[in-house]
TrEMBL record:
Keyword Isomerase: yes
PANTHER family registered for this protein in UniProt: HYDROXYPYRUVATE ISOMERASE, INOSOSE DEHYDRATASE
Coiled coil: none
Cited InterPro entries: IolE/XylAMocC-like, Xyl_isomerase-like_sf, Xyl_isomerase-like_TIM-brl
Keyword Isomerase annotated: yes
Protein name (Swiss-Prot/TrEMBL): Xylose isomerase-like TIM barrel
């Protein structure tokens, strides 16, 4: 059965969190995805979720937390009842510029994830567009990262795949067995939604959702995380996007 989640990062510009959780619950969401800025008080966050009938089933964690303080990351994930821990990105100054560097990063990421895996969680990488910038000819960083270990999963951000000029359906087929979740994100037509960084509510942009949904189901990817990096109205985005995904 497909489950639908909401990445709370979408609502970072609309405090307080308590109001966001109440809004999401009222719209019919049952699951949310966390991110690093929310984990200062795990017990309080868990109480806020529970009081709204919400579960935080997955979360984004900075590489530094996973690598340097794995017990802290594991404690957050365990307190929330998460099933998977994802590292969402590294800053530009940390990004390798050649294939050897990306391959080494993949091994570093896999090593950092070992305590998380040993604790019973799934562990993986969440892509943006920079992993599709070729190195050493035609090699792609995303492939090099995931070659670091077969235990590395991926939360494939379908919007960023399309922004990078690739077909999400092809990448779903390529890494479907390793997909922990899909980030369901839409892109506005060229020149539109400039005040929202060119993103769109799911189903109101250019993404071919019937084909993408079919591809995800064919690979038994059943966890869909709705996301928009910069909505001007998070209630509108959450409401319209949920309606779209429910109609899949």
């Amino acid at each position: 059965m497909t489950t639908i989640s909401y990445q709370l990062y979408c609502s970072r510009n609309f405090p307080p969190l308590a109001d966001t959780l109440t809004m999401l619950a009222g719209l019919g969401y049952k699951e949310v995805e966390g991110y690093g800025g929310l984990y200062d008080d795990p017990a309080r966050l868990k109480d806020q979720l529970t009081s709204n009938g919400l579960a935080m089933t997955t979360g984004h964690f900075g590489l530094s937390m996973v690598e340097d303080t794995p017990a802290q990351a594991i404690n957050v994930a365990r307190t929330m009842g998460m099933k998977a821990v994802m590292v969402p990105a590294i800053p530009p100054e940390m990004r390798p510029t050649d294939a050897a560097g990306w391959a080494a990063f993949g091994k570093r990421l896999a090593e950092a994830g070992k305590p998380v895996l040993d604790a019973g969680f799934r562990f993986g990488w969440h892509n943006h567009a920079f992993e599709f910038d070729t190195v050493d000819g035609d090699l792609l960083p995303l492939d090099l990262i995931l070659a670091g270990s077969d235990d590395l999963g991926i939360e494939l951000d379908l919007g960023w795949v399309r922004v990078a000029g690739h077909d999400p359906v092809e990448w779903i087929a390529k890494y479907g067995p390793r997909m922990i979740a899909a980030h369901v994100k839409d892109i506005a037509p060229d020149g539109e939604a400039t005040d929202e960084d060119g993103w769109a509510d799911v189903g109101h942009g250019i993404m071919d959702w019937p084909a993408i949904h079919t591809a995800l189901q064919a690979q038994s990817v059943t966890h869909y995380v709705i996301e928009h990096d910069n909505p001007t109205d998070h209630e509108r985005f959450a409401r319209r996007s949920l309606a779209t995904v429910q109609a899949f």
